[in-house]
Design a protein that fits this description.
Strand content of chain A: under 5%
Shape of chain A: globular
CATH topology of chain B: MetI-like fold
Helix content of chain A: over 70%
Strand content of chain B: under 5%
CATH architecture of chain A: Orthogonal Bundle
Number of domains of chain B: 1
CATH superfamily of chain A: MetI-like
Number of domains of chain A: 1
CATH architecture of chain B: Orthogonal Bundle
Oligomer: heterodimer
CATH superfamily of chain B: MetI-like
Shape of chain B: flat
Distance between the termini of chain B: 67 Å
Structural class of chain B: mainly alpha
Order of helices and strands of chain B: HHHHHHHH
CATH class of chain B: Mainly Alpha
């Protein structure tokens, strides 16, 4: 019978906490920058020139149909031959942004397309300014529509960050790997790390739910 | 001695794709059985079943696939099996697929209008027959597009098996890259093969989805 030994894992818990903190920061940074990329690309896809549309389409299809792991390898090992040498952590951030950007674009575009044309025309008729129409008639309802999809994409992104440990970025999984090679308590280490990830995803879901309740107070009209 | 990335290296990578395909097929087959079980448990009238399936799905959707692979890989040691990347990858991916397919298919079963179930009951059909002849045939039609979509995710997921030392497409790419030092060509080739495997599936899923939404639009 196997003897479980969690003592060395608990003794080095601060290492895991530091790794978890990097995972959180990396995910949040990638989400924020990725959102900017997504908003730009969804604008380009809905109303940009034809060439830009084709480029963005290609970007989305390539990212969505290749594994994240290969994207990281491509960026981390491939970029230096173009003269761009990145640290593991910045390569990880770049890969996450590029990945999230593709999925985010599709989500936000769907949201913008869900806005009925008549709504915008009604805004003009009411004498709203261009900025007001964009803010109140397009962006706010669109964001509310896509908010659940965006948050679950964020959770997916956060779980995906575990893969960046392969290029020795120092996230939670990497901290787990270090601890595993120091203690040989493989199963105990990874079950602890898995539980931390679970806590993070449950925590973020709860946070997003609270934000949703506070931000989109007015009832959904259909 | 650095090897040059040539025709041979290219072929080695292409041949390694068979392991990616094999692993995806096994994970999908295992995941289909597990997923059907999970979906039926989720819509079951027995509370213990519902609870178990909900917990299983939450656990697998709330933790990274990489951790699931590690846990199965190192967990095999605990239950007394020799550590084997092949079996570990297949089992972990099948469990992962069970959770995701279970959740997708539950949605499809619930998308069948409630009146159908009531009509089946009114006709005197018991649970098995109403599922077998009334609910599931309709749910399957709704399920095809999202299932093909998930298959893409699963094929991409098999790349993580390389981290526990299973030599499939990505791992073979790494090996060749270590020998040739041409990451652009190597990982470009690897990415292109994944793309060729996944893109047709993505297109099929999307086309079926639009066709279906047009068919059911009111």
């Amino acid at each position: 019978m196997y003897d479980f030994n969690f003592a060395p894992v608990l003794a080095a818990f601060d290492q895991l906490a530091i790794g978890a903190w990097l995972t959180v920061r990396l995910s949040c940074a990638a989400m924020l920058i990725g959102l900017v990329v997504s908003i730009f690309c969804s604008w380009g896809k809905t109303s940009g020139p034809k060439i830009l549309r084709a480029v963005i389409d290609g970007y989305i299809e390539i990212i969505r149909n290749t594994p994240f792991l290969v994207q990281i390898f491509f960026i981390y090992f491939g970029m230096p031959s173009l003269g761009l040498r990145l640290s593991p952590n910045s390569a990880a951030l770049l890969a996450l942004v590029v990945n999230f950007g593709a999925y985010g674009t599709e989500i936000i575009r769907a949201g913008i397309e869900s806005i009925h044309k008549g709504q915008v025309e009604a805004g003009w008729a009411l004498g709203l300014s261009r900025a007001q129409i964009f803010r109140y008639i397009i962006m706010k309802p669109a964001l509310r529509t896509v908010y659940p999809a965006l948050t679950s994409q964020f959770i997916y992104l956060m779980l995906n960050t575990s893969v960046v440990s392969v290029i020795s970025a120092d996230d939670l999984t990497a901290a787990g790997n270090d601890l595993q090679s120091a203690t040989f308590a493989s199963f105990e280490v990874y079950i602890t790390v898995t539980l931390i990830y679970l806590a993070l995803s449950v925590g973020f879901s709860a946070l997003f739910y609270a934000i949703e309740k506070m931000t989109f107070k007015y009832p959904l009209s259909r | 001695m650095i090897r040059v990335f040539g025709w041979n290296e290219f072929l080695i990578i292409v041949v390694a794709a068979q392991w990616t395909i094999a692993l995806s097929a096994i994970a999908f087959a295992g995941g289909s059985i597990g997923g059907l079980l999970m979906a039926l448990m989720r819509v079951s009238e027995v509370r213990a079943f519902r609870r178990f399936a909900t917990g299983f799905i939450r656990l697998f959707q709330g933790t990274p696939l990489l951790m699931q692979l590690f846990l199965v890989y190192f967990g095999m040691n605990i239950v007394g099996f020799a550590i084997n990347p092949w079996i570990a990858a297949a089992v972990a991916l099948a469990l992962h697929a069970s959770a995701f397919l279970g959740e997708i298919w539950r949605g499809c079963i619930e998308a069948v209008p409630k009146g159908q179930r009531e009509a089946a009951t009114a006709l005197g059909l018991r649970y098995y027959h109403s599922m077998r002849y009334v609910i599931l045939p309709q749910a399957i039609r709704i399920a095809v597009a999202p299932t093909v979509g998930f298959l893409v995710q699963l094929i991409k997921g098999t790349s993580l098996a390389s981290i526990i030392g299973f030599t499939e497409l990505t791992r073979q790419g790494q090996i060749i890259n270590n020998a040739t030092f041409s990451p652009f060509l190597v990982f470009g080739t690897v990415a292109a093969i994944y793309f060729l495997l996944c893109w047709p599936l993505s297109l099929v899923a999307r086309r079926m989805e639009t066709r279906f939404s047009r068919a059911t639009a009111r």
